[in-house]
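Obj: model holo form, ligand = magnesium ion.
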Amino acid sequence: MLAALYHQVHVWALFAFLAPTLLTRQALSRSQKLLDTSQAYAERERAVIRLVEQIREERSDERRMIAADLHDEILQPIFKVSLMAQVLKADLVGGRLLEMDEDLPALVDAAELASKKIRDLIGDLRASAIGAGGLSEALRKMVQAMSAQTPIVLHSEIAEVQLSAASQLAMYQIAKEAIGNAIVHSSAKNVWVRLTAGPSDVLLQIGDDGRGFDPVEESPHHYGIPIMRERAAAAGGHLFLDSAPGKGCEVTVVMAS
Ligand SMILES: Nc1ncnc2c1ncn2[C@@H]1O[C@H](COP(=O)(O)OP(=O)(O)OP(=O)(O)O)[C@@H](O)[C@H]1O
Ligand SMILES: [Mg+2]
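Output (holo structure tokens):
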């Protein structure tokens, strides 16, 4: 009986010794988990702030594009209206009623053309937030503008594509980040930008022949790539990033058309 008691006490003694250690370890692991979660939240919050900043910058780009479209598409027909009105006024002052009769239809035509151009522009702006010409034209303009800022040769093959306004905008924003990354990080000689239309989807590819990197490696406080992925997913598409040190980098986005 004594031996049995000793055995029991021994087991309880062992338990009494181990329990606090196990509990402390559990508490430590729980607090580590909490710490990890709060760090992940902070990281996420920084990503959201960064996204908001980026959207603000993109909006100002968008405004510049709208201004350019208004300038190119609308100003000229309006100018013609004003010109014809002045011609008519001169006809009236000079008492040239016959010429007036001829010039009046030209004024009406110019006014109708101006109103058609404005209607078209409104339609385009409603259809796509990236400008009247849609994704293809916006991409071409972007490649042209970026080429002027870098010694890297930018090659482009940009087809006309059919995509929803949201997908066009996402593709445009992703292209901007991917080309920007290639220019800033890759030390490449060439960057290729391709936009092609398949039977049921649209493919955007941005490739470079630069230094490449390991995409699996985490880059804390760098948000471009996670934001690209989020944008592709939010528009219902897929983004693939293929890179390795010394092998260049290729970003591919596929979206259903
Ligand atoms: N085309 C590329 N060639 C080589 N390295 C690249 C390329 N694209 C991305 N990287 C590497 O991946 C990292 C993360 O890119 P990411 O776009 O997420 O952040 P970032 O460009 O450094 O900063 P930002 O948050 O302003 O975009 C870069 O810092 C760079 O080291
Ligand atoms: Mg970046």
